[in-house]
């Protein structure tokens, strides 16, 4: 059995309460990595125990496999779970739970169902999903999505009549279930010129977009920024087109970095082999087009390259969300997540870890007109930051937006400018040297720095060597709060 986290247990109870209250179509929203499939598996297990029949619908083979695995791990007997997907040997027509590919289901006899669950439910207004949903007017319909928005601005109120927001990104980060990414962007001069790219169905026309972004200088910048910032992290790159993705992989290989490409034409066996090599670290970068945005879970991948500009906040969050699950390296150390934004997505949609207001309404019907998180600002080092940030956590740059420290003089008060980054680095180097000389803990140097400047040292500053640290229970500190 899978032990549910507190917020997942709460979600199950809230769904049950909504259904008892008369809701027949409930959408469950939870950030990528929060465990939507685990919640669904628990709901399904209870439905099976009550002699209900369940239909679970997804659009990718990875989602089908994931649901099947979670159901079995959650206590549903394999004999009670069948799979409706072309070529899959787990076909069990009499099973009380059917896990179905939407493409296969469209052309097969439809199984009986008291409960219909749709994964990636932001697709629920597509004709294929609506046609299937119409065949089950008496069933309870449950949708799962990390990004309950459509690129065209239409809400999901036509498919669902109740929304259960399980948890926010900030909550999951605070509780340690997701990691807060470090986000870097590029200067406006290094962004593609999209002025002549038209919009179709709420997002950029892909053919025109590919022509705008698949240019040698832009692809070259991707490689250079990765070499400077990624620290050899396993990486996924999101491209506009197949050719664009291939070119990204080629440029990395030319730079001596093990990189591979995959797309919708890559066979399942070959795709699995590529991703296994990425997980083992034999391949450092996998560039893809339209394959790994949804339904892919590989926590060891800790860097995301956004090379596909998009007007869709949902697509942006799906891509960035792939790297937010916690992961520890072979030494047991947590590895931070890094987003390299070459598409201007953070400036357009806000940081991926920001909380967003969720609703079933269409954008045009909303009285406040808000959908996205607050916009970002960029530091000179390339970090994309929240607008209120005073000191860059990456390089220590002082934006000058905070209060200054007054100095008392005989006749007047004189404002003392805040220390420059060079002064901060010099102070840190002196503290680090003293800590090394006296065999003091790294925490000692951090605390002395915090006393002087009111904040922890930037990530870019080197740590006091661990070999020189001595145990101490009196000084506990978190690096770079």
Number of individual domains? 3
CATH architecture descriptor text of the largest domain: 3-Layer(aba) Sandwich
Low-confidence stretches: 402-418, 467-481
Largest sheet, spatial ordering of strands: 3-4-2-5-6-1-7
What does this structure look like?
The chain folds into 3 domains: 6-167, Rossmann fold (3-Layer(aba) Sandwich); 182-385, 3-Layer(aba) Sandwich (Rossmann fold), CATH 3.40.50.300; 390-481, no CATH class. The strands form 5 sheets. Strands 3-4-2-5-6-1-7 form a 7-stranded parallel sheet. It has a 6-stranded parallel sheet with strand order 8-15-14-11-13-12, with helices on both faces. The longest helix has 17 residues, at 421-437. It is of the alpha/beta class. The radius of gyration is 25 Å and the shape is globular. The two termini are 36 Å apart. A hairpin with a 5-residue loop joins β16 (377-378) and β17 (384-385). Helices cover 31% and strands 15% of the residues. It has 14 helices and 19 strands.
Summarize the structure.
The chain has helices at residues 6-20, 36-49, 61-73, 102-105, 127-134, 169-174, 206-213, 216-229, 242-254, 268-280, 313-320, 345-349, 421-437, 442-453; strands at residues 25-29, 54-58, 81-84, 97-101, 115-118, 140-145, 162-165, 182-185, 199-200, 203-204, 235-238, 259-262, 285-288, 303-306, 338-341, 377-378, 384-385, 405-408, 413-416. It has 481 residues and is α/β, with parallel strands linked by helices. It has three domains: 6-167, P-loop containing nucleotide triphosphate hydrolases (Rossmann fold, 3-Layer(aba) Sandwich), CATH 3.40.50.300; 182-385, P-loop containing nucleotide triphosphate hydrolases (Rossmann fold), CATH 3.40.50; 390-481, no CATH class.
